[in-house]
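[Q] Does anyone have a clean structure-token version of this?
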Amino acid sequence: MAPIIEMMTAVNAVELLSVVWVEATMAMVAALVWFSVSGSVVLAKGSKNLTSDQGKRSPRLPCAGGSEQPTPVQIATKALRQGRLSEGIALTLQLPETLAGHVPASIAPRLLMAAVKASNFEEALADLKVLAGKFEARALEAAILEASKNKDVAACRQLQALSVPMMISKTPRALEALARVHASDMAMLRILVEDAEAPLAKCFAGAVLEACAAMHEIDLAVDVFEKVSEMDAAALRVVAEKASQSVCKPGAGKSLKHGSSSDVTLAKEIRACGKSRDLNGALKLFDQAGSQSRSTFLYNAILEACTECGSTEKAVDYFSQAGSDGFADVVSYNIMMKCYLAQGNQPAAARLLEELSEKGLSPSHSSYHGLLDARVCAYDIKGAWKLVAEMKAGGVPPNMITCSILLKCKANRANEVSQILEMVDATEQKMDDIFFATVVEACARTNCFDLLSKQTDRFAREGGSLALTAPTYGSMIKAYGQMWDVKRVWELWGEMTSNNVQPTAITLGCMIEALVSNRRTAEAWRLAQQMLKEDSTRPLVNTVIYSTIIKGFAQMKEIGKVMTLYDEMRAHGCHANTITFNTILNAFAQGGAMDRVPALLEDMKSASPVVEPDIVTYSTLVKGFCNTGCLDRALQIVKEMQSSSKYMPDEVMYNSLLDGCAKEQRPDDALKLFDEMKKSGVPPSNYTLSMLVKLMGRCRRLNQAFTLIEEITSEFKLKVNIQVYTCLITACFNNRQAFKALALHDQIIKEGVQPDEMTYSVLVQGCLKAGLVDKAVQLAKCACGVGGLKGKGMRPGIGERCLADLMSALGGAGSSAAKALKAELGECCVAPKGKGKGKGSSKGK
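[A] Here you go.
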């Protein structure tokens, strides 16, 4: 029975294999026929964004053996997605199509976009030039259409810039897209029109004329009209007339007279002379036209040439002539305003802006933006906002360029940034990557983190997150780091890497700084080590990155990790600079490891090139030795520094030395140093004074402390602050002069100086030690604003420990006197930490 079953099983298996083999053979034949006929694999629709891989991936054809092998095009595309432009170019050069004379259409647009999105466009363009002449016009068109669709003005500008060196012609659709995305940038539109061959495509000419009508720019409209074909002129004339009417003076009876083609050529030559700083050549060309042939077009050309050459006098003469002849239009005024602003003459530019309306001309955005930028650069916030109000009143609503100019002002406050972002929302324009980066920086600078979150959400809704560049990610990481939002910082870093955005050294620096400032130094170190593992990111871990992480460990006084990082840094070939060495020295000073200093100084001397110490190096060494009780060594450092004649001690260094004298109770050395400080022309501060008072008090020279205060305040017109008074009160109590201390309190109140919690704690505890319990009670009441002597301003209260000592002196917390006093003082009178502002707030520098 068993042999029969085995035989039947074998027969069934053979039959089954035969059927499977036939089916597989038929499928392979069908596939071969299909690929032979079509010549390619039908690909799924790609990503909507050329610079991202968010769309569906194209299916790959399984190879023999069942494993997928990416094609050369796919390998090159992956390299571009990951930001490896040089590798992508090298792979593209090896493609059969490229060798045949043209870059494949499937990769060409992505290659162009990768170049314009590179962190260094100039270097990217230099690398790309090996493919010059091998891009088809439709590849540039596809890239421009994609960038314009996303309103990525920066990318469009870069694509326009690379078209010439890469020898790629622009199709009518590409020119139209560029014209629409640069609709508010007359300078760029003029370049497009001048570069385009005549006759201009109807769609492109129409887009430029629409922009001219919106911006009230007649000059460029005339230029366009001269370059269109006669067949299209009739259809475009309506737009040209609209542009002309928008700037003509009402009732003047003048209409636009289009210049001849020779005038257009002459104007171009005049502008070319201006750009090459050949003013005499420009003037000769203008004179060739003769007074009868001059037009607005030619006058504006010579005004531009005068402005380029910095000849304000000539510009004023020609502007006056244009006004007298009736040829001065809005563009003429804008150019003249630009000329005045280049010379720093804002009042003259402002007068021209007022004159525009008086002449019946309508100012454009360009009319306001030059003057607005000048006021912002001069930190004239009030004047800038006044100009914005004038724009709105004149019917010129602020646009993205207006908001961008305002946001760049470093003097902006939170409420002003909020107002600007309200205007951004009102424009209903889509933010590009560059503008969003400006928003991020402004919000971070003014701590408007709620507004930043709102604008980030808006940018993401508009699809902008797909186009974020590494610098923008860096700005956002920096901003959220200042918000102490480490979770969001890591989310942004993860989003950047998942979108295959290659970080720059600056982006990594922002990330490391955000982690270190949030006391996540160990995480920063791990991230740097990850970067070192990849060939593409290893160069990003530079001296600045190491110095930042070393600074983090130095602040945590982890000397061992500081030195480990220093050794690792040298092992990876990163040369420590002055900042690095100063950071390590500061770690030694804070951690009390000054015994390590000599070896590190030897490293500075033996470095190649030698790292020279600066004033910070010397100050750090002096402070470190003074803190560890090595004043003589600190004085020796100062002498060595002075012998080099390169640096002289500053106030910070002298204060460190005086502090060292106070620690070691060496008053005579302190007075010598103070005399030297005065002779060197270094004025003392309140911190200097507090060091001297503290020292004199410890050395039982109380009268000398009072004398020093009187002499210094008189000689240097220095107003004594509360920290100096607190030191002097302490000195009085230490020298058993309690009533002098109390007299100082009365003097402080009389002078209107506000005592702080430390001052009153010193007074109360000093009185308790002197047995003046009633005075201590009176001062505690004064500190809480319930006593007879009420100072003006805040009620600083007293420390918790100080209050406990006072209650104890009254018979304990359970005594009736203590209970009554506590009820009178109130709970809000107590400062829990029991620490005043004292020393730390008086350092100044």
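[Q] Thanks! Anything notable?
[A] The chain has a mean pLDDT of 80.
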